[in-house]
Amino acid sequence: MAIPDLPSRLATVRDGIADAARSAGRPVADITTVVVTKFQPVSLVHELLELGVRDFGESRHQEAQVKAAELAGSPATWHFVGQVQGKKARQVRAYSSVIHSVDRESLVTALGTPPNAETADASVTVDCFVQVNLTDDPARGGVSIPDLAPLVEKVLGTPALNLLGLMAVAPLGTEPRRSFALVAELGAQMRSMAPEARYLSMGMSQDYAAAIAEGATHLRIGTAITGNRPAPVNLKTS
Ligand SMILES: *Cc1c(COP(=O)(O)O)cnc(C)c1O
Predict the structure, then answer these.
(1) CA 118 to ligand 1 centroid distance, Å
(2) CA distances from 192 to 42, 112, 126, 147, 152 (A)
């Protein structure tokens, strides 16, 4: 059963992104929209594929792994946006094109080890963002700002990882644009160490326009496109 509102919600968000890019004087082609489908059935991913979406975001490994397997051979590209458990890191790496949530050195080590040391092609890399925590709450995920530079160095020293830039979530109850401006500033500082790492993963359903104004290149948008998420009660995907 097709969801009647899905095409119109997607069109509304695409228009909103185009408007925000125009206001910021930025080419809309510089902005990748990752549609976050966590807790949503795989049927929704199929519908989004039919509507031309190619970039999908997931935040729980087991659910993401099932969806990626069901959609193997489709043009879907998977972005992992949730916290990665160290012992699942290599599995997450196996289906993800981009991991947005690299936030600690032990995870860099785990991701840097090829899934199968004997057969893996050492030249295969995975794109990643280092996630910055803009709150005082370590449970939020992300590296604290004082620990950012050493973590970036560790990623740069790991051949299996290709650093794209920084990712962040604007803290609740703050002015998102100020948070995104800070991330952009940290990104500019990082480029003295990593000139190629010019991307910024920031902006969600409620704050993507502010993120575009501050230079976001990767938006992670869920509910504004998908509608409300079902409660995450189990891992069934259809
Ligand atoms: C769920 C999630 C999103 C999408 O949030 P919406 O408010 O539904 O747009 C973006 N980023 C991360 C890290 C998420 O976990």
Answers:
(1) 36
(2) 41, 23, 22, 16, 11
Q: Is the CB of 205 under 6 A from ligand 1?
A: yes
Strands 77-80 and 161-168: unpaired
CATH topology of domain 6-226: TIM Barrel (3.20.20)
Specify the pairing of strand 126-132 against strand 218-221.
Answer: unpaired
**C-beta of 166 in contact with ligand 1 (< 6 A):** no
Asked whether the CA dihedral 220, 225, 212, 55 is positive or negative, the reply is positive
> For the chain (length 238 residues), average pLDDT per consecutive 10?
85 98 98 98 97 98 98 97 96 96 97 67 84 93 97 96 98 95 97 96 98 98 94 60
